[in-house]
Amino acid sequence: MPYQIFQCNTPLNIRECEWASAQAIPPVNGQVVPTVQFGNFTSCIGIVASNVDATQVIGIHLVMMNDQDEPFTAADVPTVTALLANFPENQSIVGQIALWEDNVGPAFAALVAALPNAGQSDQGDGTYGAGLNSVDQLEVLFQPL
């Protein structure tokens, strides 16, 4: 069975191998509020992005090896890019980027190549999320473990 990513209905608690999208939440008193948020990252990465008019945000939680011992490979990148088809703006790869480069380098390189405009944010172990700021730019949010 290939590596799979399942839709979930909890955009503020996206677990391993899950994705969710939600209506963008505007800032509150100038503070960015998470629209999507992942469970804790110790070896995972996530992808966040918005649609063109910044009304919807998506989060995709990726693991190097799923619970069926299936690794994320370059062949799985089209599954990710298909989920992002309606979310071409504000793309960022967040999480344990260095760990992925070291352990699944070819797959990570293929992911980066498929998302040429995506920013990257590796702040170590923690909880990552994203929300829109006052100019409709998606900001990565981070809480260390």
Summarize the structure.
The chain is an alpha+beta fold and 145 residues long. It has helices at 77-83, 97-103, 105-114, and strands at residues 6-7, 18-23, 36-37, 45-50, 56-62, 89-95, 119-121, 126-132, 138-144.
Walk me through what this model shows:
- With 145 residues, the chain is an alpha+beta fold.
- Helices cover 17% and strands 32% of the residues.
- The chain has helices spanning 77-83, 97-103, 105-114, and strands spanning 6-7, 18-23, 36-37, 45-50, 56-62, 89-95, 119-121, 126-132, 138-144.
- The strands form 2 sheets. A 6-stranded mixed beta sheet has the order 1-2-5-4-6-7, with no helix packed on it. A 3-stranded antiparallel beta sheet has the order 3-8-9, with no helix packed on it.
Write the layout of secondary structure elements.
Blueprint: E1 6-7, E2 18-23, E3 36-37, E4 45-50, E5 56-62, H1 77-83, E6 89-95, H2 97-103, H3 105-114, E7 119-121, E8 126-132, E9 138-144
Parallel strand pairs: 1-2, 6-7
Antiparallel strand pairs: 2-5, 3-8, 4-5, 4-6, 8-9
Helix pairs in contact: 1-3, 2-3
Biggest beta sheet attributes: 6 strands, mixed
Write the H/E string, N to C. EEEEEHEHHEEE
- Tally of alpha and pi helices: 3
Number of strands: 9
Shape: globular
Quote the average pLDDT: 96
Poorly predicted spans: none
Structural class: alpha+beta
What does the radius of gyration come to? Answer: 14 Å
Which quaternary structure do these chains form?
single chain
Query: What percent of residues are in strands?
Result: 25-35%
Instruction: Identify the strand order in the major beta sheet.
Output: 1-2-5-4-6-7
C-alpha termini separation: 33 Å
